[in-house]
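Hi R.,

Here's the chain you asked about this morning:
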Amino acid sequence: MTAQKKFKAKRALIVGTLAFLALDFAGHQQARSQAKATQNGFDLVDKAGNIRIPMDYRERYQSLGTFTVFDGKGGGEMHYTYASPGTAESYRNTGKFADGTVLVKEVFGTQHGLMTTGDAHWAANTKVWFVMIKDEKGRYSNNPLWGEGWGWALYNSGAPDKQVATDYKKDCLGCHIPARGTDWVYVQGYPVLASK
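And here is the predicted structure, written out as tokens:
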């Protein structure tokens, strides 16, 4: 190999290495900034207290955990719950959900089949979304979808931008009664909230 070819090869290696390091550094910076970021849940609420689903929750929010509900006929639902950035760390430090915390529960139907590990079940189609936003200050006391320290919302998969709940007391709270002592959230199913 000639000296000129060696020089070009060395230069290409150095340029490639520097480009890789720059991209790697940028990726770590972005991941670090997302991990430290917090979600202001009230950015998802209009002046009247209407809540919308955060469109980027699968990419930006942290997975808290999954509940599987079997129907006794080989099927059921999977309830995936996501939390706004910073929620788990804040909860571990304080033992409570911070004002503005957003929880998104996406409920899937399931499919199943026999696999090498046994009768396996997996998420299929989205059925509904539930969204809760922590409100320590009672900002929307005149809105029937706000109370018990939370804003409550329910959306069907066929119309993800249309809130179908009309009153949290009749449409939402009944399922949360057993979790009253843990701020209306079934925290036992979310291992990332437990202290490390």
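One quick note: The radius of gyration is 23 Å.

Cheers,
M.
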